[in-house]
Amino acid sequence: AAAIAAVTGYSPSPSPMNFKDTPTGELFNANVFSKAVMKQRLPKPVFATLSRTIDAGEKLDCSTADAVASAMKDWAIEKGATHYAHVFYPLTGFTAEKHDSFLSPDGEGGALAEFSGKQLIQGEPDGSSFPTGGIRVTFEARGYTIWDVTSPAYIMENPNGTTLCIPTAFVSWTGEALDKKTPVLRSMQALNIQAQRILKLFGHTDGAMVSSTAGPEQEYFLVDRNFYFARPDLLNAGRTLMGAPPPKGQEFDDHYFGAIPDRVLAFMLESERELFKLGIPVKTRHNEVAPGQFEIAPMFEFANIATDHQQLLMTTLKRTAEKYGMACLMHEKPFAGVNGSGKHVNWSMGSATQGNLMDPGDTPHENAQFLLFCAAVIRGVHKFQGLLRAVVASASNDHRLGANEAPPAIISIFLGDQLTDVFEQIKGGGANSSIPKGTLTVGVDVLPPLPKDAGDRNRTSPFAFTGNRFEFRAVGSNQSIAGPLVAMNTIVADSLDYCATRLEEATGGDPSKLHGELQKLLTEIINEHGAVVFNGDGYSDAWHEEAEKRGLLNLKTTTDALPVLQSEEVKELFGKYAVLSERELSSRLDTYLEQYCNSISVEVKLTLEMARTMIFPAAIRYQNELASTCANLKMLGYEFDTDTLDTMTSLVKALQDSIAELEATLEEPETDDLLAEASNYCHVVLPAMGKVRSIADKLEAVVADDLWPLPTYQEMLFIK
Ligand code: ADP
Ligand code: MG
């Protein structure tokens, strides 16, 4: 109740952004050491050398680095920066920074503002507390951060000090990737190399770099900070571990695309302004399905930059929410029984000269090329469905995937009726199809128009073609998009490699044979891998049965999915394209298993603590009230219906039993086998935790409101 008073008493200080007072040109990229700034501040030859490094991946020499560092430092100091930080992306999925001052003693009692090329290019954070899955312990505890020239440096403004931030890769001294960024860059290179071979077959030999592009849609919840602080579970685990669903749930659906509350709008405006300044092109915002849930989506960018920007976006949303007295929840399932949060990662690939390669195009030749790229994705997703499930596996995302929620844990592709029909026509129909053979001739016929309309999309599919890109919807709201992008880039590189090899051999370099051979190849791919295409309802039980018949994997939990990372196919895939070595891969498996265990371990401790110190005391107080009322009334000769007291008494007993049971599950002997430990958490501990919760939730419905120690769903979800 005190919390409610705090909420209603809150009035945000409005600081609206408008494009009249601050032209978009001044706002966008204002805090970024962008190409425009570089061009203006760097000597011409330095800028030319740096541009070649950024665009074509040429090696950066030391004198260039010194010149860039000096210009960067001057620019940053003008913007108020006192420190610089190498920003890196450890396997936790979060962002880490090591701050250093620009100030160096000059040896004569004074100090100089200094920043050399070497300091720009390489740093040495004491990152020994970051998970590395054993890579570093066997050698030495040092890791290096190395400037990622392709991702621009930026200024982070903070009332407590402003910092120049330099995006970096984090590697061990043996050159092994300890982070999420390095494999993204490697996978983009692999994709480029294979895509060039395909483009060459189609007569495009300009060599313009093909990059993967990504546009992540971020879902999140907002709750008032007063509630947030009153809930140890939200505060420490990011989700509610108890709480009965509100009487007014999302079945009303009036929140979706409804009016955005004022405070939330003010928060969104300020977030957008901050993001613009950082060069993050946010575009859409709206309410989501659940009450208190919202979404923000930037325009797509190159995958590596989109990944860095996604991390920055999450940080910015959380920070800005605090300013408006709210907490921004990125957890995949903060509230049971209420829609969870995902991160839809829109993915495609393209080059400066060829544009978007997932765009069907208008001519038969363009159509043919598109169909090949599309078939490559279908083949990759089918071959590596387990990998795609593994890269989105986490304790928190398990509450979405495979639980009764979008999307299912079975990876399938939604192509839409029109495109499915096109592939059916190419292969000459299925066994029971009425479509005659060769109805559509690749390179001759024009594709029918494919819909780009959101209304036509199947929202239950984990992986959907949406007109000119694919949308991977199984990614969790709290996850880095790096893993999913690495997987996408690499499996498609593998497919393009396969297709290029086949076509190069079959055509023997004769372009006139291309379309005919392509038709054969597409037929083969759709026959072998078409089982992954599914346009129906992904939630239905019928699909689960059907998917099993089709031989598709249904990896329900993280413990089922993660071991895929050590399968022979996956090791070979990442090894072949030099994206992740076997050691790098196994270090990731260990890290993610450890994270899984840790996060559930935290939840268990919280559940026990809350059950013992909050729920149980509230329950016995109420039980006692009922009991003394009963005794008093009886003494006076009145009747008292003991139904509620009986319910309370049995619930209190059940609560005590469930607490004891949960505690007992933790008495498992220590083991070195991470997978066994994870499996125990999954199949033994989690169900026991669920039992405590279900009794606590029952108690919530009975115990007097003024005795209930936690803010309720009702209070938290309807943000004003
Ligand atoms: P939805 O209807 O799925 O909610 P949104 O408009 O919210 O769609 O988000 C679509 C996302 O897809 C945006 O981030 C957009 O920039 C991105 N997108 C569009 N084209 C591409 C592309 N070629 N590659 C990657 N992402 C793209
Ligand atoms: Mg979407």
Automatic annotation (TrEMBL):
Residues 180-615 form the GS catalytic domain. One of its GO terms (biological process) is glutamine biosynthetic process. GO terms for molecular function: glutamine synthetase activity. It comes from the Bacteria. Gene3D superfamilies: 1.20.120.1560, Glutamine synthetase/guanido kinase, catalytic domain (3.30.590.10). Residues 82-175 form the GS beta-grasp domain. The keyword Coiled coil applies. It is an enzyme of class 6 (ligase). Residues 645-672 form a coiled coil. Its EC number is 6.3.1.2. Keywords: Coiled coil, Ligase. InterPro entries: Gln-synt_C (IPR040577), Gln_synt_N (IPR008147), Gln_synth/guanido_kin_cat_dom (IPR014746), Gln_synth_cat_dom (IPR008146), Gln_synth_gly_rich_site (IPR027303), GS_Type-3 (IPR052725), GSIII_N (IPR022147). Belongs to the glutamine synthetase family. This is Glutamine synthetase.
